[in-house]
Amino acid sequence: MIRRLAVALAALLLAPAATAAPPREAADLLVRNGTVVTLDSQRRVIARGAVAIRGGAVLAVGTEAELAARYKPRKTLDAGGGIILPGLVNAHTHAPMALFRGIADDQRLMDWLQKYVFPAEAKNVTAAFVRTGTRLAALEMVRSGTTTFADMYYFEDEVALATKEAGLRGVLGETLIEFPAPDNKSIPDALRYTEAFLKRWQGDPLIVAAVAPHSVYLAKPETLRAARELADRYQAPLLIHVSESMDEQAQVSREHGKTPVRHLADLGFLRKGVVMAHGVWLSASDRAVALEARAGIVHCPQSNMKLASGAAPVKEMLAEGQRLGLGTDGVASNNDLDMFEEMLSAALLAKLTANDPTVAPAAAVLEMATLGGARALGMEDRIGSLEPGKRADLIVVGSAEPRTQPLYDPVSHLVYAAKGADVRHSVIEGRVVMKDRVVLTLDEARVRREAAALEAGVRASVGR
Amino acid sequence: MIRRLAVALAALLLAPAATAAPPREAADLLVRNGTVVTLDSQRRVIARGAVAIRGGAVLAVGTEAELAARYKPRKTLDAGGGIILPGLVNAHTHAPMALFRGIADDQRLMDWLQKYVFPAEAKNVTAAFVRTGTRLAALEMVRSGTTTFADMYYFEDEVALATKEAGLRGVLGETLIEFPAPDNKSIPDALRYTEAFLKRWQGDPLIVAAVAPHSVYLAKPETLRAARELADRYQAPLLIHVSESMDEQAQVSREHGKTPVRHLADLGFLRKGVVMAHGVWLSASDRAVALEARAGIVHCPQSNMKLASGAAPVKEMLAEGQRLGLGTDGVASNNDLDMFEEMLSAALLAKLTANDPTVAPAAAVLEMATLGGARALGMEDRIGSLEPGKRADLIVVGSAEPRTQPLYDPVSHLVYAAKGADVRHSVIEGRVVMKDRVVLTLDEARVRREAAALEAGVRASVGR
Predict the structure, then answer these.
(1) Do A419 and A333 lie in a common domain?
(2) Would you call B106 helix, strand, or coil by DSSP?
(3) Judgement on whether residues A71 and A138 belong to the same structural domain of the protein
(4) Residues in A touching B444 (Cβ below 8 Å)
(5) Fewest beta carbons less than 10 Å away: which of A14, A192, B384, B409?
């Protein structure tokens, strides 16, 4: 008792004069001991920073000293002196295709599709295949810093279930395509599937159900109109491939006498929440239309290079202030889901293409992979930066490798030197999904066994 | 005694009839339990393979069953079911610049040199700086699969000492440059330094001392002639930057009325063992000259993209059968020393540039990073493939990450999906230099402390 009194007295005497410390507010989690790269409106980088989280949302971002004084967290996560940043947004992929990694490299696009991808899909893609493929992809995404991904595939309900199981945020759409898919054999079937999918996932904290017509060349005008109408009824995003290759440009021009973007605009398809993947061959007037409609564009540099599709006009799109995100595309044309590599490739390719090394500086590329992706998806009110009120999606990049030293500028470091393997922790919707490189949501050994069991079938289907 | 007899009798009865097993030959090390990607003349890929090593050289490559029957190794190294391949050859870098990582991103080449690199070098580069920088770079190189690197810098004796300490193989040259360097203040000084350097390292198992005039634009004709003469006397390689940028082409054309390669050819500089870094702007006739002279060319795609120097004619050089290697260049323009990323970038860039996804297939790119690098350095009789008689430089790529699954084709996997962080073990000159990602030759914590102590000086010198 006397000891307690003495402690209280000492506290009183040592406290700053006349300011009783206010009681600390409760928080669920305090991520501390790191440099916070916020991506907030002032693009603050906070040394010795921290992020306080409650109810799956960011409560506050500031110095650790400030936040420790204001909040009493139930748990803390030690960033170990690393970099705390918004989770990366992979704004275009086909997650289950992880199981097709390396089946068809160094092929022309049409051979790649007709001789490898389509036959492999026809023979292998089932609900179980999609579930396992998404789990494998989810492990890879979490381990390389992705917290949100946008996906177009088949059996998309299985993608959603595996995504939720992994604790990842997903913007997911069943592909609407004008030939019999592994699950839905017609567009009316796929539209019915999509409507049930939209209903099922309404209000989910992690899953955003989308409507996903494949492209202008594989979705007829009436399909595109029905897709837009359905998406509007459920206030859902629309995912679509646009202007990926010169062949696509030529085909759409032959069939409709215009560019894919002009065709979409004339159909009344474009609006905020329309996510156009690739955009390699967008003209200046296409881009003006996209900007006016507030549609998103997703740059996929590695896939575009690997398939020799071309180099998107990144310099111009950055200057125009497009809603510009970054995506890996599927693993069959990448061959991984690593957004750190994608950032590096985006920076390097844009400089080379523009013949100007000042183009696509590190800050702009990091933004493409975070806030830009959020804007492309029409979700910038929820994700993409570390600011109070946004969902609490963040990653911690550590400095275990000699390669991470020296570190003169955290933003340069993230784009030009850091790798997916440097991601130590991942927090999504306030939940610690990976800690010290152990994914806490999925049983990794089991996923790998399940994936291994599917390899022989894939191998047989493409004669490998 | 009776038990021994019984065992001997059983062995006799169980042995194949009439064939007494020959006694097994001694070996120092057997690397076993992996798929061996040999890069030998038949480009064999051996499942359940192994490599036997003795006296720092490859003794045999084959299936594990064959080699276990023929050799009795003192030690074994378990590849854990991974891929065993020749160590990667980084055929152009400036290792000590690891300490300049990220000091000057997104800058025009001349600003990059004049405002950042040259001032930082003038104010920081000492013998101790070079030693520490090379140690840091060596850690990074070993950890990402490089076993041989070619280096041009200053205080090159320190580079050699640190390289030897790390157990890496180095082809190292003191830069001869027409302005006062941090160590040698004139070309005659630098030539004297180089001759002492060549003498000192003659016959070393790991260090190949080279002669390294910076470039045609920063080495006068008499310097180039003296360099060649000196190199010939010691049968040493010659390292030089050639045709990196359009500015260089223009300047050399103004001063000499020809291309850099033609200028070098006319001076009698070219021969096997001349290693021309970059080669971005080589014309068809330059390339014919290089091929005829058996000079090497080193493609540095990430540096060339980052500085917007251009895209080298890789499709053409592969078709011509050039001695074509791959290099990261220095960390100030990359910003790391990861040859896996360099392979990926080389493949992607060549496809995009040629507008053809079949160009630079995985096998050709893996060759650039191994045997091609060896050929570029004129060392294909010693390194670059796993074949009996060659020096025993190999790495093991593991499959710890979900990203490494599935693995349908080891060669595709190495170029398109594997990362530096997947390298588990490294063997150089028969010595295990890294085991289970622990570098055994350098004290990593100490190197990092030494490197950290130099950061403030670099920061001050470039106003960061």
Answers:
(1) no
(2) coil
(3) no
(4) 402
(5) A14
The residues facing A325 across adjacent strands are: A298
ipTM associated with this complex: 0.94
Report chain A (464 residues): mean pLDDT per 10 consecutive residues.
Answer: 51 52 92 98 98 98 98 98 98 97 89 88 96 98 98 98 98 96 96 98 98 97 98 98 96 98 98 98 98 98 97 98 98 94 98 98 98 98 98 96 94 97 98 98 97 94 84
Full residue range of the structural domain in which residue A299 is found: 88-376
Query: For residue range A321-362, what is the model confidence (pLDDT) as tens digits?
Result: 999 999 999 998 999 999 999 999 999 999 999 999 999 999
Q: Are A307 and B99 within 8 A, CB to CB?
A: no
CATH of the domain at B399: 2.30.40.10
d(CA B206, CA A195): 66
Which two structure tokens, joined as six digits, stand for A235?
Answer: 């206030």
Yes or no, beta carbons of A406 and B455 under 8 Å apart: yes
Return the residue of B nearest to A421 by Cα. Answer: B421
Q: Is this model's pTM higher than 0.90 or not? A: yes
Residues of B in contact with A458 (CB under 8 A): 406, 408
Beta-carbon pairs below 8 A across chains A and B: 204
Number of residues in chain A = 464
Cis before B90? omega within 30: no
E strand residue ranges, B243-346 = 274-278, 296-299, 323-326
B100 in the same domain as B64: no
Phi, psi of B381 (to 5 degrees): -80, -15
CB-based contact B348 A351, cutoff 8 Å: no
Q: Which of A104, A386, A369, A307 is nearest to B347 (CA)?
A: A307
- Alpha-carbon radius of gyration of chain B: 23
- A226 backbone dihedrals φ, ψ, rounded to 5°: -65, -40
Please report whether residue A94 resides in a domain. Answer: yes
